[in-house]
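Lecture notes, part 5. Sequence design as translation. It can be helpful to think of inverse folding as translation between two languages: the language of shapes and the language of residues. The source text, in structure tokens, appears below.
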């Protein structure tokens, strides 16, 4: 591979890592602004975004999206519902299927917090022609599919660390 192409790919990956860090910090600030734990705020955002796309989440799908066990997700949903941030409804013909919806104020709050950034991001993307934006979208979709596939595979075993009380190696916690 040409060194210039390799360097460009590395700069692009670094830019994506930086963007991810900014997104994490923005999520942390949103959580603090709402007075929620960051995981709870992430769940609220996932629920609101899915609802806005017209594809509301079930508790199981939310659990997958935020990487929590079903038990932890149930506890999280109980907290959010008690605080009025979300509702659980049974809209499906199969009454066992639960649909998650944002509370009456959540979309308004998300718009208030993220609206200024959304306008700035839209302005940053506006100079790019639709064909290039389509290619960017395709690129990001392919990167996400690659990450999803990687995350679905089992990870490496935990590294072994030296035992502070002796010379035997032991598993890291």
């Amino acid at each position: 591979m040409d060194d210039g192409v390799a360097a460009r790919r590395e700069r692009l990956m670094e830019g994506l890592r930086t963007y991810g860090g900014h997104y994490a910090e923005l999520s942390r600030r949103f959580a603090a602004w709402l007075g929620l734990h960051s995981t709870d705020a992430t769940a609220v955002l996932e629920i609101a975004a899915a609802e806005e796309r017209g594809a509301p989440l079930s508790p199981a799908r939310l659990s997958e999206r935020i990487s929590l066990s079903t038990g932890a997700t149930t506890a999280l949903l109980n907290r959010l519902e008690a605080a009025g941030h979300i509702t659980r409804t049974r809209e499906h013909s199969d009454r066992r299927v639960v649909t998650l919806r944002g509370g009456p104020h959540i979309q308004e709050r998300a718009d208030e917090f993220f609206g200024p950034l959304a306008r700035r991001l839209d302005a940053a993307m506006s100079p790019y022609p639709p064909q290039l934006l389509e290619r960017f979208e395709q690129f990001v979709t392919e990167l996400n599919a690659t990450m999803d596939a990687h995350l679905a595979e089992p990870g490496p075993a935990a590294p072994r660390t030296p035992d502070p009380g002796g010379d035997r190696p032991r598993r890291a916690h």
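The translated text above is only one of many valid answers, since several sequences can fold into similar shapes. The mean pLDDT is 90.
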